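INPUT
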Amino acid sequence: DGGITQSPKYLFRKEGQNVTLSCEQNLNHDAMYWYRQDPGQGLRLIYYSQIVNDFQKGDIAEGYSVSREKKESFPLTVTSAQKNPTAFYLCASSSQRGYEQYFGPGTRLTVT
Amino acid sequence: GNSVTQMEGPVTLSEEAFLTINCTYTATGYPSLFWYVQYPGEGLQLLLKATKADDKGSNKGFEATYRKETTSFHLEKGSVQVSDSAVYFCALSDLGNDYKLSFGAGTTVTVRA
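OUTPUT
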C-alpha cells in the first residue's frame, strides 16, 4: 500500500535534548512538508521541500531543522532551541507543489 | 497574504441532521480550495477539493462549491452519521504563496446517536 509513515507515534524526551522525527513516503511524490498542530489550532508549516537536497523554511522554522537526502525521506529534528516543542507533528507530501497534500498519521512529541 | 476563516465550533448535531461549516478565504491569486478531515489521534485526510470558481467538490456525501464572488467554500452534508464526528479543516493554496497550504483553525463536529 502506498502512503506516508511517521514513527514513532508517541515520543517522550527531556528538555535540552534534540529529537528526530521520521517521515517516509512511497508515493513517489516530489514535495514533502512538516506541520505542527497545537490543541484547538490549525496547522502551521515548519519546513517544506520540493525536490531532493532542497528545502525552505515555513512560518515557524525556528528551533527546527530538516534534511532531504532521498526523495522518500524527510526527517525533522526538533532542537533544544525550540522553546515549546510539545505538540503533534504531521508530515505530508504532494506529487507536485500546488497539488493536494497527503498526510501521515502524526507523531505526538512530549518534552518534559 | 492568504488566510482562511472557519466557523467556530464546537458543533453538536443529532444523527441525520444537516451540517454546514462556513469557510471564507482571502487570497492574492486564484487559489485551489480544500476540505480536510481529522479523526481523533490521526493525521488529516483530504475530503474534497475544488480548483476553480464554480467547481463543486464532493465525497462521502459532503459537498462544497467554490464561490469566487463571495470568497467562500462552505462544507455541507445532508444527513450526518455518528462516524462523521471529527475535526474539519478548510485550506487553500495558490501560486502567490508558493502553493503552501493555509489552514483554517478547524471546526470540531460531534454527532450524537
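end of record. Chain B has a mean pLDDT of 93.
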